[in-house]
């Protein structure tokens, strides 16, 4: 180094400083629980008590859920109702107590050793990896979870009970559907009053003679507009009930050359030869993938395309999937003509409409 570099701006000389010595780790300070067995046992009981209190809070949450109504007129703090306060406080305390218990366990009872580690490349060497695995093994042993059954069992009990609020809160998603997913209002028609197929939105019945080859019509059951005709209580097709029925019963009609139709088999293995009328077929409008409404028609191929994820169904071949993520064909509705020449449903769909669900039993039609 030149003299210019050895002098500072005031003319003084700069001393050459070598590497800073490693100061090492400070002397280890033993915790009271490390040297006093009585304090160790007391800390263990404290941790277990925190976990136990968490379990009690979960039980109080369940009691509050089933005993306090949302519509209670008495309030607790800042206008919040008793139900809201009780559920929030008990569930919050349950989670908090588990967190405090784990922290207390780590600070008082788990291994307490000062360590230092040099920086290393992104990928550790095999020796470091092996040392890390060994350190984790030692850490598990030093945590005492194997030799402290009181803490282990109380923690497992507290964490296990935390699953109950999640299960109970599923009730708030609404009543279970039961068998409602398996049936639609199309099945309300009878032999003397078969359910008419009407145009969606304008509710006019459809004459088979009015449809030409290539025509696609969006339809609904007549019962949604004229419930009395089918001896249905009008209140069953109002408000939310109306939307539920429409979401399940939405239909598309397509007329094609009768020679293009390849009749499949129904759920009982019987032929579907009598399910169409003069080349007019009827299928659910609800995609079997995730339930999007579909009506994009490829006129020359008789394919119906879902705009959401491009699932494509062949309406000339039992609604089979020819492309896309849908796993099941579109359900087909058997149709006929009544005495006045209007299109009617012979019966309900022979399988659930819409996307799959876990209780759905499906037969192989391929």
From TrEMBL:
Q: Which residues form the Rieske domain?
A: 248-344
**Per UniProt, what is the membrane topology?**
Multi-pass membrane protein
Give the transmembrane ranges. Answer: 47-68, 74-103, 150-170
The protein's location, in the record's own words, is: Cell membrane
Q: What is its main location?
A: membrane
Q: Which SUPFAM superfamilies does the UniProt entry name for this protein? A: ISP domain (SSF50022)
Enumerate the Pfam families for this protein. QcrA_N (PF19297), Rieske (PF00355)
Give the span(s) annotated as Disordered: 1-39
CDD domains membership: Rieske (cd03467)
**Bias category Basic and acidic residues: which stretches?**
1-12, 28-39
Record keywords, A-Z? 2Fe-2S, Cell membrane, Disulfide bond, Electron transport, Iron, Iron-sulfur, Membrane, Metal-binding, Oxidoreductase, Respiratory chain, Transmembrane, Transmembrane helix, Transport
Q: Which cofactor does it need?
A: [2Fe-2S] cluster
Query: Out of the domains of life, which is the source?
Result: Bacteria
Which PANTHER family does the entry mention? CYTOCHROME B-C1 COMPLEX SUBUNIT RIESKE, MITOCHONDRIAL
User: What family name appears in the similarity comment?
Assistant: Belongs to the Rieske iron-sulfur protein family.
Q: What does this protein do?
A: Iron-sulfur subunit of the cytochrome bc1 complex, an essential component of the respiratory electron transport chain required for ATP synthesis. The bc1 complex catalyzes the oxidation of menaquinol and the reduction of cytochrome c in the respiratory chain. The bc1 complex operates through a Q-cycle mechanism that couples electron transfer to generation of the proton gradient that drives ATP synthesis.
Name of the featured protein: Cytochrome bc1 complex Rieske iron-sulfur subunit
């Amino acid at each position: 180094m030149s003299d210019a570099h050895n002098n500072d701006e005031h003319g003084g000389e700069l001393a050459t400083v070598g590497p800073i010595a490693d100061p090492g780790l400070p002397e280890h300070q033993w915790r009271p629980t490390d040297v006093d067995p009585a304090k160790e046992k007391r800390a263990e009981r404290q941790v277990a008590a925190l976990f136990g209190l968490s379990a009690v809070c979960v039980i109080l949450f369940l009691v509050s859920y089933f005993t306090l109504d949302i519509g209670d007129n008495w309030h607790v703090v800042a206008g919040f109702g008793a139900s809201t306060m009780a559920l929030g406080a008990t569930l919050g305390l349950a989670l908090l107590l588990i967190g405090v218990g784990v922290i207390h366990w780590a600070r008082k009872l788990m291994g307490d050793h000062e360590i230092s580690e040099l920086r290393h490349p992104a990928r550790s060497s095999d020796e470091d990896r092996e040392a890390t695995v060994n350190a984790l093994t030692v850490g598990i042993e030093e945590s005492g979870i194997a030799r402290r059954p009181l803490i282990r069992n109380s923690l497992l009990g507290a964490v296990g009970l935390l699953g109950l609020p999640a299960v109970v809160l599923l009730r708030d998603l609404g009543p279970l559907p039961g068998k409602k997913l398996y049936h639609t209002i199309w099945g309300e028609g009878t032999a003397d009053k078969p359910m008419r197929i009407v145009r969606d939105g304008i509710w006019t019945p459809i004459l088979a003679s009015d449809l030409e080859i290539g025509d696609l019509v969006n339809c609904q059951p007549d019962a949604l507009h004229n419930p009395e005709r089918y001896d249905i209580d009008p209140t069953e097709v109002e408000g939310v009930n109306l939307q539920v029925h429409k979401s399940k019963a939405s239909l598309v009609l397509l007329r094609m050359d009768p020679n293009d139709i390849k009749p499949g088999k129904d759920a009982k293995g019987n032929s579907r030869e009598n399910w169409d009328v003069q080349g007019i077929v009827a299928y659910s409008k609800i995609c079997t993938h995730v339930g999007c409404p579909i009506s994009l028609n490829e006129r020359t191929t008789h394919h119906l395309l879902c705009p959401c994820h491009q699932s494509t169904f062949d309406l000339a071949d039992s609604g089979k999937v020819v492309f896309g993520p849908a796993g099941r064909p579109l359900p087909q509705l058997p149709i006929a003509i009544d005495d006045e020449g209007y299109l009617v449903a012979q019966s309900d769909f022979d399988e659930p409409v819409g996307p799959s669900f876990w209780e759905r039993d499906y037969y192989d039609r391929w």
